[in-house]
Amino acid sequence: MNKIVIGNHKNYMFTNDISEYLKNINDKIKTKNVVICPSNIYIPYFLKQKYSVGIQNVCLNDLVCTGEINVKQAAKIGINYVILGHSERRTHFNESNDFINQKIKDSLEANMKIVLCIGETLEQKNFFQTKKILKDQLENSLKGITNFKNIIVAYEPVWAIGTNVIPEANDISEVSIYIKEIIKEMFNCEVIPVLYGGSVNSKNIEEINRISEIDGVLIGKASTDYKEFLKIIEVVI
Hints:
Elements: E1 4-8, H1 15-25, E2 34-37, H2 43-46, E3 52-55, H3 71-76, E4 81-84, H4 87-92, H5 97-109, E5 113-118, H6 122-126, H7 130-141, E6 151-155, H8 169-187, E7 194-197, H9 205-209, E8 216-219, H10 226-236
Parallel strand pairs: 1-2, 1-8, 2-3, 3-4, 4-5, 5-6, 6-7, 7-8
C-alpha cells in the first residue's frame, strides 16, 4: 500500500503566503499520494498540478446554505479528497457522528476520497476510554457504508493536535492495528489505510514513519511551511 501525505492548511495562510508556497512546491511534488487541503478561497490556485487537492469540509448536498460548499461543487472543479469529522468540526460546530455519516454518504456518491478523522480527548485517554471512543466514532460515522475503497481513516488524538506532544510509537501502532481490526470486524471489508495526525513535523516524522502499521500522515500547521512539508514528504513518500 502506497503511503499518503495530507496537508491541512486550516485557515493559517494569506495571499502572500500562498504565492511563495506555490512557487516552491509545484515543481517539487510529483505524486497524487500527496494531498494539499488549502482554505477554500485558495483552492483554485492549487488545482491542475501533479499532487492531489482536498477540501477541509463540505455541507450536505441537499442543504442550501450561505457560506457553505457542497460536495458536488467540490468534485466538479477537480477536488479529489474531503476531510470529514475533524475534531475542530466536532468541537466548535457540534458535528455528530450521524451528521458526519450523512456527509460521507454524499461524498461517496460524488466519488470523492474521504479522510475520516477520529480521536480521543485527553480526559478520555486518561480514563482509558480510547478504544471505546474510537469504536463508537467508527461504528456511527460509517453506518450503512458498504464500499470502502474511497475511505481513509486518520487517527488524530485531540490532545496531540497543535500541542507538540504525540503518543508513543507503540501506542500509535496499537491503535492503528485496533482501527483496522474493528473496521474489518464491523463492516467485513478489506483493510483500509490508517494515517496518523497530530503535531506531525520534520523532527518527529522519521520516528512516526517507522511505525509499519500506519499508511501515512495528516499534517496541520507544519504543512503550511513548504520547507517542513517537503522534508516530511521526502521521508514518507
